[in-house]
Amino acid sequence: MGNGTKVGQVRGLGSAHKGTHHFTAQRVTAVGNALLVTWLLISVVTLPSYDYATVTGWLAQPIVAVPMILLLVSVFQHIRLGLQVAVEDYVHDDGLKFATLMLVNFYAIAAVAFGIFSVLKIALAGSSL
Amino acid sequence: MAKTGQRPLSPHLTIWRWGPHMLVSILHRVTGDGMAIFGGLGLVWWLCAIASGPAGYANFRYYAWEAAAGDTWGLVVNIFCRIVMIGLTWAFFEHLFSGLRHFVLDIGAGYELRANRRWSIILVVAAILATVALWGWLLFGKGV
């Protein structure tokens, strides 16, 4: 990055043909969430009971386990992008902002990993539990 | 932004009053960040609890919903979790409806003052009604 001319000071910081990626990804995952979380809400509230056998039997079905994994991916991607915007808006200290954004990324990635592992364990090892 | 020096601010920045569109905008962010933290952690807690087996899931249900009558700490956690669950369903409806409003605004529609104001009020009321309807049915119809 140059430091002489005005354009040199901003080159590489502005539009690098990636400026709309965050915006688009937030909306694409929003559509995914609108469908998948609505499905989860309806599915959970209409479960006949919430005992262990019912819940694991429900979650172990492919038609439930797969949408649940898709939901985790879509929701936590949306969460990562959304919390990033909030941090960028309210945390002004550069060092603290860097640390908070790192924490946001760790949280979202760890949560999706724990979530997917749990769903797979229930779906694939359900009978042995 | 490039270095701009001392530029005058718009005089209108300090002249404003509350409107439904501002409320919706702020609620969108509050409900989104609230669900991102409480909803995200709750979802993963629930899935991990189920995956950890019958005892782990029983422990989750105990603290989330149905602690023993004599267990003061457990009942306090129950009340907190119930408030969070009801809050999360409201946050979901609010964020879903205001998110759909964002899609309409994204295509460049709905900026007319009257329409913008009307839909802002409608979706806030709709989110509250949906929450009341859902929990009314869950608690008194289904009897959870």
**Number of helical elements of chain A:** 5
* Rough outline of chain B: elongated
Distance between the termini of chain A: 58 Å
- Main β sheet profile of chain B: none
What is the number of strand segments of chain A?
A: 0
Class by helix and strand content of chain A?
Answer: mainly alpha
Characterization of the model:
The complex is a heterodimer of chains A (129) and B (144). Chain A has 129 residues and is mainly α. Chain A has a single domain, classed as 3 helical TM bundles of succinate and fumarate reductases (Up-down Bundle), CATH 1.20.1300.10. Chain A is built from five helices and no strands. In chain A, helix 2 (21-45) packs across helix 4 (62-90) and helix 4 (62-90) runs antiparallel to helix 5 (94-125). The mean pLDDT of chain A is 90. Chain B is built from four helices and no strands. Chain B has helices at 20-51, 54-64, 72-106, 113-142. The termini of chain B are far apart. Chain A binds chain B through residues 6, 9-10, 27, 30, 34, 37-38, 41, 45, 50, 52, 55-56, 59, 68, 72, 75-76, 79, 82-83, 86, 107-108, 111, 114-115, 117-119, 121-122, 129, and chain B through 2, 29, 32-33, 35-36, 40-41, 43-44, 47-48, 50-51, 53-54, 57-58, 61, 65, 89, 92, 96, 99-100, 102-103, 106, 134, 137-138, 142, 144.
Task: List the main descriptive attributes of the protein structure presented here.
heterodimer, A: mainly alpha, 0% strand, B: 144 residues, elongated
Condensed summary:
Chain A is mainly α and 129 residues long. Chain A contains five helices and no strands.
Topology:
The complex is a heterodimer of chains A (129) and B (144).
Chain A: H1 6-10, H2 21-45, H3 52-59, H4 62-90, H5 94-125
Helix pairs in contact in A: 2-4, 4-5
Chain B: H1 20-51, H2 54-64, H3 72-106, H4 113-142
Helix pairs in contact in B: 1-2, 1-3, 1-4, 3-4
